Amino acid sequence: MSDPAREAMVSALFGGKALPAGELASLAGVSPQSASAHLQKLTEARLLSVWQQGRFRYYRIADDEVAGLIENLVNVAARADDAERTRGVPAQLRQSRTCYCHLAGQLGVALLDGLVCRELIALRGREGSLTENGLAWCRAEAIDVKPGRDPHMRLCNDWTERVPHLAGAFANAILKRLVETHALTPHRVPRALRLTPKGRAFFARLGVPIPF
């Protein structure tokens, strides 16, 4: 991760998409041969997973646990020059963005606060579980959570807000639903998400004040 090219490739994949090697080479500003060497190192380190489709090889972040590890590394690096890094972050990224497959930024933090305040989830340290009220809420909002199965959830440090947001399978299911219903739509800034009127209605039902 210390190499700028590898950092650029991992950053490009942090939106949850799988990308081919050629596109990652272009984004990192290196030759295809150099990109292949970097991608091999990242795959061997089990930070990325890869699969073949036709003549193309597609890469993505290995899993949610690896994504959380990378987010925490970003957090540590950001402490070195907090003021400078904050000035360089686009407002759209601070407001609402993807963190691998879950919601981050000010809106992600607000989502966690709303779930806890309404007792839809119960936190134990940095792990969490869905309550009966939470399961009923999932049914009402058509969030894909199966009864009898406790979806994994954990706290993930938000590198712009310096407080946690929610990560794990449950958080992934919420973001998936918000994207499917166009409550959140992609922004022109990579990884940033735009909150639509449908999204504002979703957070209003949850009783969460929109922080922007």
TrEMBL record:
Highest taxon of the lineage: Bacteria
Recorded GO MF terms: cadmium ion sensor activity; DNA binding; DNA-binding transcription factor activity; lead ion binding
Pfam family, one: HTH_20
Gene Ontology BP terms: response to cadmium ion; response to lead ion
Coiled-coil positions: none
Domain HTH arsR-type: 1-81
Protein name stated in the entry: HTH arsR-type domain-containing protein
Annotated organism of origin: Bradyrhizobium neotropicale
Species lineage: Bacteria, Pseudomonadati, Pseudomonadota, Alphaproteobacteria, Hyphomicrobiales
